[in-house]
Amino acid sequence: MVIGAGQAGLSAAYHLKRLGIEFVVLDSNASPGGAWQHRWDSLTMRDVHGVADLPGEDAPVWREGARANVEVPRYFAAYEERFELPVERPVRVRRVESDGGELLVHTDAGTWRARSLINATGTWNTPFLPHYPGAESFRGQQFHTASYPGPETLAGKRVVVIGGGASAVQFLGELAGLADLTWLTRRPPVWRTSDFNSEAGRDAVALVEERVKRGLPPESVVSVTGLMLRDQEKKAAEMGIYEARREMFSSIEPDGVRFPDGSFQPADVLLWATGFRPSIKHLAPLGLRSPEGGIELLAPRDPHTFTTSAVDGRIHFVGYGPSASTIGATRAGRVAALAVRDQLTLRK
Q1: DSSP label at residue 217
Q2: pLDDT tens, 285-344?
Q3: What domain count does the chain have?
Q4: Residue 98 sits in the same domain as residue 146
Q5: Which of 29, 96, 237, 254 would you call most buried, defined as having the most Cβ atoms within 10 angstroms of its Cβ?
Q6: Residue 211 lies inside a defined structural domain of this protein
Q7: What are the helix (H) ranges across the chain?
């Protein structure tokens, strides 16, 4: 069984079918496209960091100005149809339990039994929103990356952008000149000035791999690659928008945020670009988490692709930790499918 029909889940499904393994894909969305279908309308194919080819079919030539939340889901839908992948939707997985040698997958549409499971649920459904005293008193609007409404809604407002990752950089670039912007980040942003080549990519992935090998909560690949301004963000840089205040406020008040030194920043909007956490709550009954809070993974097929749970060899992860990128997810789908074949063969 595969849970999730985004880039990682479709890759795994393709390889499972190629290997002749009987399976089903359970997807919580009502239509194809994974998390891409939920992204904001102003995100175009020019803005995204890249969408890797799915196995067996090259991605189309993207139109730069086309909406990402339309183009990528269209690609995924055509892919599902072409390869006749058995996707059931919408099916929301509630919990997964062990029942002897099998797994019980409880959903809002009934219960499935499986001998092996590939988890490809990503992170989009688990936005991270830190709590600060007074948050409930704020009279303005609050948005997370997952609910970002686009620049038109925020035009002319005092917007505080919170977070130091790629989404924050993109929001600031998009809102420059339209809104009164303040950027807050706990850690100074690390800017990348050199090209992000394959060697740099391998080095970055290796750092994330080290965390999942030790059972630590994964960090995003971009957190170790550094941030790079694209052409569409150069204007914001020239305006000084990327001069962040490198401390976080201590509390939220009805009309803004208060800092530890007593200073106050008025705000109409708090835009939380504070990232996501892996959507794996449904796996809690299996006890896969390590004492460090993450899921320790093994690399049974490829020394650089960690997909299999160290606690339960029936559970495989794609789009988690070092494979949480479109390229990494595609590669991990193949490795996980092969690991499933090996696991099922050993049990015969």
Answers
A1: P
A2: 999 999 888 899 998 777 778 899 999 999 999 998 777 777 778 889 999 999 999 999
A3: 2
A4: no
A5: 96
A6: no
A7: 7-18, 68-82, 151-154, 166-175, 198-213, 222-225, 234-238, 326-346
Same domain, 147 and 52: no
Q: How confident is the model at residue 46 (pLDDT cuts 50, 70, 90)?
A: confident
Q: Is 120 inside a domain boundary?
A: yes
Task: State residue 284's pLDDT score.
Answer: 97
Same domain, 121 and 6: yes
3-state secondary structure of 47: coil
Packed helices 68-82 and 7-18: angle between N→C axes, nearest 10 degrees? 10
Max intra-chain CA distance, the chain? 67
pLDDT at 109: 97
Burial of 331 (C-beta count, 10 Å sphere; 0-12/13-18/19+): buried
Task: Tell me the C-alpha distance between 65 and 57, whole Å.
Answer: 23
Segments forming the whole domain that contains residue 168: 128-185+236-272
The model's pTM: 0.89
What CA–CA distance (Å, rounded) separates 147 from 135? 17
The CATH number of whichever domain residue 140 belongs to comes to 3.50.50.60
Residues 174 and 152 in one domain: yes
**Per the structure block, which two tokens stand in for 17?**
């079918």
Helix (H, G, I), strand (E, B) or coil at 129: coil
